[in-house]
User: Fold these one by one.
Assistant:
Number 1:
Amino acid sequence: GSALYVEGNLTIDKSRISDANAVYVNNGATVNLTNTTITNSNSDYAVSNDGTLYLGDDTFNSIILNNADGLINSTTYTVIANNETIVIDEGDNATVNATIKDDKGNIIKVTSFTVNVNGTDYTMEFANNAYSATVENLVPGIYPVTPSVVGLGANVINSTSIKVIGETSIALEIVKNNEG
């Protein structure tokens, strides 16, 4: 069934939960979910967190919502652009894509995720279980993409850079000498 944890510490281990919006961790609560399977249809989330949450070896078929007051204190992984350099031509916009997942690949949605490129912060928008932002107006060069994610205490970040390629032109002067 669904659970609401108001305060205190609770461990849920080796459980199967099949309700919509299955687990809600309230502000002030600490919940440790391990080896737990949550299957729910027509739900907004598997776990919604406003407290402190530890995850380990869980399987969910809906996302984990880490709300503004929530802290996920187990290892999470932020991967930007599949760890590949984003290459664009001068004048084009760069689309920066990213995912945030737990140790078993469950999708995490956070309330604050930005990337900084060339001194400008871009908000990463969440849609279709991934994040993206559009970076504009870069001149030729290489720009590190520096992420900032709120609410993840042990976040492993795999970042990238944007490489902007400018037009290359070489002026050639052809001199023809006719000798003899």
Note: The longest strand covers residues 71-80.
Number 2:
Amino acid sequence: VERARSHYQMASDIYPLLFYAHLEYGDHLTRIGRPLAALDVLDLAVQRFPEHPDPWFFRGKAALQAQKYASAQDNLQKVLAMNPGEEDATLLLVQAQIELQAFASARQSAGMIAAPDTPDLEWQELYSDIDFAEGSATGDSALVQKSQTTLFALIQNNPQDIGNWQKLIGRYQLVGDYD
């Protein structure tokens, strides 16, 4: 980490407006589990390049990992204001909104990319996540069951997807269904 920091710092010192050095270093810190340090680096990128969506995107990604969900939402909404329909930013925005229990906003954001009945498996999974989180938070067992049904259908479509198996088993354990 220290070696990478010195390389990015050197690049920034040589040419302070070196846009991608800040982004890459911030993203590197996020990927290695240091999102708070990433936010400090990305703050500088946002200050220097406020009109470009990339610093806001990486800052939103780091804020999400740091569990600063309101900040993640704000940063990702800025990305989408500059670049409407940007799918990766929308995915992260929906995740932040789920964590904030802003379920209507999460559905609205997801709907900018894909309808709830989309054939796209990634978006089906995301809608399932919204359903499960909302159902769990509000005690709506029908939404929880809907999320389980969707996830089970995704597993039937791709039985090798270990992540969805883990998610489905975890959800059943959370709702106390061990059968």
Note: The chain has a mean pLDDT of 89.
Number 3:
Amino acid sequence: LHDGFLISQKRIWVILSFVLLIIPGFWWWKVTLVKMMIMGMAGLIGILYVVPLTSEQKTLRNFGWAKAMWIALSWTLATAGMAISSIDHVDWKLLVSRFCWVFGLTLLFDYRDRAIDAQHGIKTWGNQMNLAQLKKITTGLYILAILLELSRSSPPSLNSWPVILGLIIAQGLIWIKLK
């Protein structure tokens, strides 16, 4: 009973914090329904990542193969999703490019944390694949992100180049660091 009370108290605090963050959003940022849905989805994924979903105290973090995708989706919605919600159309190339980039980064953090995840019995990309396989996957994701960024406008806009250079530098550092 005591553990159940603490869990329900934690959920109440998480929900209350979430509500208290949303209400000022209407006032300060004139939040539209689309922005609320994007913020809500990103927030919900973030909350479900740490709040237990089952009676066995499993969170989204415990679903290893999907963990990296949940993180990438949450960050994509929180960063690119909010940016495109202010324009007339959805820039799918930006969303997919950002997802590929964050997913690639998350896979590398999974690899770094493979021993901890394995201790907890969580099967992730990082502890189920070797480094060479993960390098191939992240390189493919980064190349796809660069190609999508390049194809967003013709010729590529000045705003695209810092993103592309950042992706290239990040990939170079990954190849150097992870030998």
Note: DSSP finds eight helices and no strands in the chain.
